[in-house]
Design brief:
With about 260 residues, the chain is mainly alpha-helical. It has one domain (about 1-260). It has 13 helices and no strands. It is globular and about 60 Å long. The two termini are about 30 Å apart.
């Protein structure tokens, strides 16, 4: 599945290069708000923190709308400005929710862990280690927060629960996805976030969840296979037949000069 995931992501990303770039440009414009505007308000602390908080939450709402829109690409479909605008209206709650989660994780990482380490005791070291591994699990789980919102549930509490359930059932995929996202982020930084950018990361995570959900459809149709000793023996070759046909194969020439095919 992993090999096909990378292939499908790259094909979909290339086929929707312009739209992904537009999503990335929108995010760059969004992230510019908390970077450039709040410093102009340093003389008014209340307004400074209010603008900073709203601006950062807006970035998460924007990413939630982008995730909802890119689902169409993963499903071999398309989306336009009207669809993105509609998704933006539906994205405020999951965006704010994930923003709050990320804020809590940052507090734990930057304030709570150093506090416990500063205790210079075995208890402090133990508590710091517990929080550290909690953060690791949270990051591995919540990377799929937006895809799960897009495909499985709309209620924040259930999205949080399903994020953890998905991680504990698919730890290998979650670790691989996080590594892949870090690589994409590094590549995006080199290209000034224009490509693959945040849109490329959101598309990759949605592709990963979409393909992995095929396993659960198969287990639901074959309950006798849903036992610990057999549930990992998923017939991916059979499950991916339709997707492989839709994705197809291409030569380097077809990527660079698609109109010549």
């Amino acid at each position: 599945m992993i090999g096909f995931l990378i292939k499908k992501w790259f094909f979909d990303l290339w086929d929707n290069l312009f739209k992904v770039a537009l999503i990335n440009l929108g995010f760059i414009a969004s992230i510019a708000i908390p970077v450039f505007i709040p410093p102009l308000l340093e003389g008014i602390p209340v307004l400074f923190f209010a603008v900073m908080a709203v601006s950062i939450l807006w970035c998460f709402v924007y990413l939630a709308a982008a995730a909802l829109s890119l689902k169409a690409v993963s499903d071999y479909s398309n989306f336009g400005f009207a669809e993105f605008w509609a998704n933006l209206k539906a994205a405020w709650l999951p965006g704010i929710c994930l923003g709050a989660i990320v804020f809590l994780i940052l507090i734990l990482a930057n304030l709570i862990i150093p506090f416990y380490l500063g205790m210079n005791s075995l208890l402090g070291l133990f508590l710091a280690a517990v929080i550290f591994w909690t953060i690791v699990v949270a990051v591995l789980s919540f990377q799929f927060f937006f895809p799960i919102r897009t495909r499985l549930d709309t209620k924040p509490a259930k999205i949080i629960k399903k994020s953890f359930v998905f991680f504990f059932d698919n730890p290998g995929l979650c670790v691989f996805s996080l590594i892949a996202c870090i690589i994409i982020m590094v590549l995006s930084a080199i290209l000034a976030l224009l490509f693959p950018g945040p849109g490329g990361i959101l598309l990759f995570l949605d592709e990963a969840l979409r393909l992995r959900l095929l396993k659960y459809d198969w287990l639901e149709a074959n309950p006798e296979e849903n036992v610990p000793s057999r549930r990992r023996k998923v017939p991916w070759d059979a499950l991916l037949i339709d997707d492989r046909e839709k994705t197809g194969t291409r030569s380097l020439k077809s990527f660079i000069f698609p109109w010549k095919d």
